[in-house]
Amino acid sequence: MFGYGSLMWRPGFRFVERVPARIAGLHRSLCVYSHVHRGTPERPGLVLGLDRGGSCRGILFRVDAAHHDETLAYLREREQATLVYREEWRRVRRLDGHPPVTALVYVVDRLHRQYAGALSREALLEHVRQGVGISGPNPDYVTQTVEEMERQGIRDATLHWLASRCS
Fold it and tell me: Which stretches of the chain score pLDDT less than 70?
């Protein structure tokens, strides 16, 4: 499993290995209107999606085969509440010197009604500030993600800008 947002700091499943990794052809983007976890349909927040183009550093999780089915069920319940992501198996490069692996990745569905696309910084800030869902306030999601990105040595100008205005 490749985590690039909240899965990096709150995976919620058992794993046997956690290593820095990079995926090519997709980038981290605050491009999904959140109607459940960090907002509502009436007051949507924003969460991250992997969108086409560029590359993304994140965390690769290896799950023991004995826990594969329960982990997949958990991830589907968590990540697919509104089916805004497509489950894909993609090649992911480990950053620890080991060979690349094929991993489960949640990629944003650009045709889904919750796909926000590229928003201005001001629009991002407005949605993040207003969003509160079943997993808590949207500003917490942004700041916790940025904190984990910093621990991993990852810098994203837009997310850092947002986090500085959410705290």
Answer: 167
